[in-house]
Design a protein that fits this description.
With about 725 residues, the chain is of the alpha+beta class. It has four domains: about 1-55; about 55-225, no CATH class; about 240-255 and about 270-325 and about 515-575 and about 595-655 and about 670-680, Gamma-adaptin ear (GAE) domain (Immunoglobulin-like); about 325-510, Rossmann fold (3-Layer(aba) Sandwich). The chain contains 20 helices and 23 strands. It has a six-stranded mixed β-sheet with strand order 12-11-10-13-14-15, with helices on both faces. α1 crosses α3, α14 packs parallel to α15 (about 475-485) and α18 (about 655-670) runs parallel beside α20. It is globular, with a radius of gyration of 30 Å.
Length: about 725
């Protein structure tokens, strides 16, 4: 059944006043009525026109009579004490929706306007998130529309719709709020910390003709933050005699570093769970040699003194993926899966997301294709798979996206993968790019269910990239797991510059997978190594037997990607306090009186009663397994490593800089293994090893270290 173009529901739909159920019903009916769709467009165009015209309208102060009426009614309702007003929200009167655009214009033009923060925006945002996110919502507040018994607060914080910005600056200040209070429309106090973005606390009361229509109490601050991070148990030192093998999956994600940068720049030290050291180290490019053989990446190992524990050794394993010229890349079948729920409204979410995706579209070739799927309370295909020779259509579809509603991520994931499979390119790039804050709150919301869904979809041959946006309700833990199980990579886009880095400078690695299920296994030589620990990669650890199991999922490497891993090694002859283990009953015992030789570092090593290979002087053997992007059987690479006795001063700038990043992560996390190392020591290492810094990323890191030093408690 089609909808009548004169139905009042069309106006409510166009102005965003329907709940999810009503909106879905109207959208279903709109598909059958061209006239109704035309009416909706006209309403929205009129709204946009009014928005522009009304921005310049003055906000008249209340008359003395109006103020007396408000004060009188307030005393009746709250017994003369407005500050004791309940935090419970009172029901707002229903504003009768006009039956046509003409009626809307007559009513709106004929009423007075006053600036007032949007109740609904502030209420939603106050559930969680730092104060500056609330400032942005308040900065897109709306006017009170109507007078007399038909008046109500028009609750919209969408600056492109009916919402009228109340302040030309990015943030609404405490002075602004106090001005509202002086008009009688806000009762309570705003703390001075509101200006600094730390916290605020105020009550908002809406009145009309002396009658209280709504009252709400808002509080925000660090304690209201709902960002979600996994608890990380740091890798311990392990004795080689009982744990000769260390096995893990590689990781090319960089989200942790960008997220830490965001937090530090906001004046907040990151929580330990936000600090994934491997993602910090892998954020930067290193000058590893390109592969020269049949394998799609090179493997490089360097060994030197450990900067934070000089009697230990620091071993760096580096991988460099093969690179492609832009015209060598196979055609791409991409599906942008975009979260357009209400939580994506702030400027650093959907607006930044759209800007980022436009950058990516600009990098695509004519034989690439893009589809756009969105999800909020429901999911939908905004743009079917469209060749990039028609980039205007793709960019136009992106530009039309607006936020609103709850977040049904599961439905969107299903639609996106179905779309990618329907347009699958054999031998091409087939990828879903999920862009969201990760705050899934309806439909399939269980983390385990979503991860299982992604894991199952990965079997289709479609890879996944996850781009995280926003703050306050940012769900890092969820996004990291989806990328892990979806054969993909994960980046946090906190600025337009980061979007350019991920989607322009590194677009090949973001899109093109050159190897999948890449695993690393290290076998340590007990004659040379007493103990070791892997720095980072805590959530990528594998069992020793997983290394040869081709059914076991692992990480992916993109074109041109570099991957770095550090081991801190305790050489044989250096004591370390490890938990005691009972002697093994069934294993060969060590010789009671071994002969003693010296290692390259002048330390005693045991040579008796060990296999010939252990007497080779090798520190360890590095083994890698990987599969071709469309393969099912892994290939093996092996490389023995000998300690050459080098010191940190012998090493390249790359080695020293990467070491400074790893040590910075240890300090941010509060690692028990950082010893007496300090931020000042990190700073000196980083400054001495910046080297060639074409894009300024290493200089930016130096500034972040300084910022962290400033934020340390006294």
């Amino acid at each position: 059944m089609s909808i009548d173009p004169n139905d009042p529901k069309l106006t409510a739909y166009a102005l965003g006043e329907l709940d999810d159920t009503e909106r879905a019903e109207v959208e279903a009916q709109l598909k059958e009525s061209e006239a109704a769709r035309q009416t909706v467009n006209e309403i929205r165009e009129t709204a946009a026109l009014l928005t522009r015209e009304l921005k310049a309208e003055p906000a008249p102060a209340l008359s003395d009579d109006q103020r007396k009426a408000i004060e009188s009614r307030a005393k009746q309702v709250y017994g003369g004490d407005m500050k004791s007003a309940p935090a419970k929200r009172l029901t707002l009167r229903r504003w009768w929706i006009p039956t046509s655009v003409a009626a809307s214009l007559l009513i709106v033009v004929g009423i007075g306007y006053m600036l007032l923060p949007s109740l609904e925006a502030a209420r939603r945002q106050s559930r969680g998130g730092p104060a500056d996110a609330l400032h942005r919502s308040l900065a897109n507040a709306s006017r009170v529309r109507g007078i007399g018994t038909s008046a109500r607060v028009y609750m919209s914080d969408d600056p492109s719709g009916w919402g009228i910005p109340v302040h030309p600056q990015q943030y609404m200040t405490a002075a602004d709020m106090k001005k509202f209070a002086s008009l009688g429309y806000v009762e309570g106090t705003v703390t001075e910390a509101f200006d600094s973005g730390e916290a605020y606390d105020f009550s908002l009361t809406v009145m009309d003709s002396g009658e209280v229509w709504a009252h709400e109490h808002f509080v925000s601050g660090p304690g209201c933050n709902t960002e979600d991070y996994d608890y990380i148990v740091e890798n311990p030192f392990l004795a080689v005699t009982h744990n000769p093998l260390s096995t893990f999956s590689i990781d090319v994600d960089t989200a942790s570093y960008a997220n830490i940068r965001r937090l530090l720049n906001q004046g907040t030290l990151p929580p330990p769970g936000a600090v994934r050291i491997e993602e910090m180290v892998n954020y930067f490019d290193y000058d590893y040699p390109l592969p020269t053989g049949d394998d799609p990446f090179s493997v490089n190992v360097e060994v030197a003194d450990c900067p934070w524990k000089t009697d230990h050794i620091l071993a760096r394993i580096g991988i460099k993926g093969q690179e492609f010229e832009p015209d060598e890349r196979p055609p791409a079948n991409l599906v942008f899966l975009i979260d357009v729920s209400g939580s994506m409204r702030p400027a650093n979410k959907l607006p930044l997301l759209k800007e980022a995706m436009e950058m990516l579209v600009d990098q695509l070739a004519y034989d690439d294709a893009v589809a756009i799927a969105v999800y909020a309370g429901a999911s939908g295909l905004v743009l079917p798979s469209t060749p990039c020779e028609d980039k205007r259509a793709i960019l136009s579809a992106l530009d039309r996206l607006q936020s609103g509603g709850s977040t049904n991520g599961g439905a969107g994931i299903q639609l996106a993968y179905d779309t990618a499979v329907d347009n699958f390119i054999e031998g091409g790039v087939n990828r879903v790019i999920l862009a969201t804050d990760g705050d899934f709150n309806v439909g399939t919301t269980s983390r385990s269910e979503l991860v299982r869904m992604i894991e199952e979809k990965a079997k289709s041959g479609v890879f996944l990239s996850v781009l995280g946006f926003g703050m306050g309700n940012y769900k890092d833990s969820m996004l990291e797991k989806l990328a892990d199980k979806g054969n993909g990579n994960y980046a946090c886009i906190d600025t337009a510059n980061e979007a350019r880095k991920v989607l322009v400078e590194q677009v090949g690695g973001t899109l093109v997978t050159i190897a999948k299920d890449v695993k690393i296994q290290i076998e340590f030589n007990p004659a040379e190594v007493n103990a070791y620990r892997l720095i980072g990669y805590e959530n990528r650890m594998l069992r020793a037997e997983d290394f040869n199991d081709d059914t076991r999922d692992a990480g992916e490497i993109g074109a041109g990607h570099t991957v770095t891993a550090f081991y801190e090694i305790v050489p044989a002859g250096v004591e370390i306090d490890l938990p005691e283990v009972d002697p093994l009953k069934y294993q060969p015992a060590a010789a009671e009186t071994p002969s003693v030789e010296e290692s390259p570092r002048g330390l005693p090593t045991s040579r008796d009663s060990i296999p010939p290979a252990a007497q080779s002087g090798e520190l360890m053997t590095v083994k890698l397994r990987y599969k071709e992007p469309d393969g099912d059987t892994s290939k093996l690479i092996e490389m023995p490593v000998i300690d050459g006795g080098l010191t940190l001063s012998d090493m390249s700038d790359d080695f020293v800089f990467a070491g400074s990043v790893a040590s910075f992560g240890m300090l941010l996390r509060g690692s028990e293994h950082s010893g007496d190392f300090t931020y000042q020591a990190v700073l000196e290492m980083a400054q001495a090893s910046i080297g060639e810094d074409s894009f300024g990323y290493r200089t930016e890191f130096v500034n972040l270290v300084k910022r962290a030093m400033e934020l340390q408690p006294e």
